[in-house]
Design a protein that fits this description.
The chain contains three helices and ten strands; from the N terminus they run βββββββαββαβα. The chain has helices at about 95-105, 125-135, 155-165, and strands spanning about 1-5, 5-20, 25-30, 35-45, 55-65, 70-80, 85-90, 115, 120, 145-155. The protein has an eight-stranded antiparallel barrel with strand order 2-3-4-5-6-7-8-10. β6 (about 70-80) and β7 (about 85-90) form a beta hairpin. The longest helix is centred in the C-terminal third of the chain and has 11 residues, at about 125-135.
């Protein structure tokens, strides 16, 4: 685990199912250590900017720490149709105010930065076999699976837990 400008950097592999409805669901496995985080994203309804291309969309991505039962939300841009690339965005000018607010919101001291690039794409039978094995609740939904390296910077559930305990009033 590296530190980038004082922020925790988690690197690993993500397996993400792209659902026909525009949602995404999957897992991020932090390496080394094989710590698993859940990923769930819904497409945000927005006016697409002409200059961004037809494959551009915004995703409200929830990162879930199953061990601590905590989650954080970050807005990412998704490019590529079947082979997705996810990146955090700095601003969302031109979208609804609630979307702009989510993008500009910082969680605690650190902004969460996400980066994902599809390295392996699975479709049809290969995708369905992968989903049945690793994401059985999504079986039969005709999803496409993207597998690749993911980096999440600025997300530190452990530090947040310690900080919240320190800020609790004495009883």
């Amino acid at each position: 685990m590296e530190e980038e400008q004082g922020s925790k950097v988690m690197e690993g592999v993500a397996s993400i199912a792209l659902l026909p409805c525009g949602s995404i669901s999957g897992h991020f496995v932090q390496l080394p250590g094989s710590i698993c985080f859940g990923l769930h994203g819904t497409e945000l309804a927005c006016e697409r900017e002409c200059s961004r291309g037809e494959d551009y969309r915004l995703i409200k991505l929830t990162i879930i720490d199953y061990n601590r039962k905590k989650e954080r939300i970050v807005v990412v841009e998704c490019r590529g149709h079947d082979a997705a690339r996810l990146r955090s965005i700095e601003h969302a000018h031109g979208w609804e105010n609630d979307v702009v607010g989510m993008v500009e919101e910082k969680h605690g001291k650190n902004k969460i930065v996400v980066s994902f690039d599809c390295e392996t794409l699975k479709a049809e039978k290969a995708a369905e076999d992968h989903i049945k094995r690793f994401m059985p609740k999504l079986a039969g939904l005709d999803a496409i699976v993207n597998i690749g390296r993911m980096t999440i910077t600025g997300l530190d559930f452990e530090a947040e837990e310690v900080e919240s305990k320190q800020n609790r009033p004495e009883v």
